[in-house]
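question for whoever is on the cluster today: can someone run the full assembly for these? two chains, 588 residues total. i dont have access anymore since they changed the login thing
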Amino acid sequence: MRRLALVPLYAALVTFAVLTLIPFAWMLTSSLKSQHDFFTSFFLPRGDGFLGVAWDRLTLVNFRRLFSEFPLGRAMLNSFFLASVTSSLATLACAMGGYGLAKFNFRGRTALTWLVLGALIVPGSLLIAPGYQLLWQFGLLNSYAGLILPALAPAFGVFLFRQAMLNTVPNELLESARIDGAGEFRIFFTIVIPLVRPMIGAFLMITFLGAWNNFIGPQIVLHQPEVLPLSVTINNLRGLYATDYGLIMSGTLVSIAPVMCLFLLLQREFISGLTSGAVKG
Amino acid sequence: MSRSTPPLASRGPRASAPPFPRWAPWAFTAPFLILFLLFTLWPLAQSLLLSFQQTFGPKSTAFVGWSNFRFLLHDPLFWQALRNTALYTVGAVFVQLPVALGLALLLNHPAVRGRAIFRLIFFAPSLVGLVFVGIMFAQIFQKRTGLLNAGLHALLPSWDPEFAWLDEHVMPSLLLASVWLYAGFNMIYFLAALQNVNRELLDAAQLDGAGPWARFRHIVLPEIRPVAAFVVLLSVIGSFQLFELPWVLLDNSAGPANRGLTVVMYLYQTGFLVGDLGYASAIGWLLGLLLVGAAIAQMRLNRREEN
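^ ran it for u. tokens below:
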């Protein structure tokens, strides 16, 4: 009887899972088909191969064109560069800021904490116009620095690390390290950072994703085609080859596959870090 | 986490620990502080100034007093953008979040096997950047060749394969894409909250004859209220800043008859396509005030419900 009650439960879960996966499956199969097969079949072209699919009609030509006719390899390198530099430096800056607020009793701590909380509610879109003007004044337009520097110390990151370190870094440990004569930065890198490792993993992932998927930023700051990341390059490609569906879908696939792989590697830390602030809070 | 690391017994009493050097907290907070002053606080002050100016590109400006704001209040395009954005926000809170909560409730059922794999599948779309979601769904919503119309037509022969998702039904299309994109992400928060609900209390209530709705209403809901309030606030703030998804979905435009125009999209258009950063800043400040208002209203509402 109890078993039978589980049937609708699984039916609902499997239905949602299939609905979630369909766009991915459609993208994958579209990228492997020729233009003709794109119009004549939903997913895989029908034929008399294994499972009634014409496997021999699948083709890698879209991917080959992507890398030979278009600067997609370069765009991918640009995205990797931007995302890894931004995420590693932002994680360092936020972990340091969170540590400073969580583990030191000093004049100005309360004011600084309020500053971080206030910064949380500033909507990013408010900063687009004056930020552009500022970058122009500093001569940082059309440079990676103009894209990376403003993204290096997000307030929510400082806040997340502060929350994590309040509980997980024992004061006694810091004090005994000072008795042993360890310097402040040595304490930070050899004691504090290892204690908040899951949070570091989660935050690296969050900032990497943010920089990888950033579209407005590079669209506004960068002007030369060879420095553009994947997000803008693929969107431009679609502007030029709107009806070349297989090409567009293979470009999109190539753009999201790296972050999917990264997520599979880090997923456990990512999900626990994501919710730790919200639930313990 | 190794919260239980004991203090070393051989060390002296706590009072003898040398104090930290006075520069230490400032050295650790300096990177945040400097970047915050430079790239948030300074532009914020600038944007307040800019909102009282008319500009043509970043170079030429003229002080115009309140006229940006006055013009904004009578700008039909701004009102249309605000209406679209509000409509999307309502959809996000009343359609997307209930789907997320439903998924979390299903996954939280104690008998479910393979929870990790379902969670992974539902979460996967939130890794895809908004641009890429826009490009994917622009193809899926195509009139004849798109998967959605073709699939619906195959299932229900009466479905019109020429159904114009992106021409006449922009908001439902946006909502569909956003449910696909965000429901799994918000599910993670609900799932974490549901895991704190007292299972014994639920079992006892069931023995006493409380039905599923009564158990949800009186035991589960009060327990997850703080997290739910947090998720609603995040969704409202996120929805109000909607821009990239409709922009890319509608092929780098606001769509036919501006049906997909949002507030931030209008800000982008006036600031970067027209070149009036002053007017764009005025839009930004009005949006910021609306967001602060929404946050305060929501906190008030939440406090009243808790009492």
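summary bc i know u wont read the tokens: The mean pLDDT of chain A is 86. The two ends of chain A are 41 Å apart (CA to CA).
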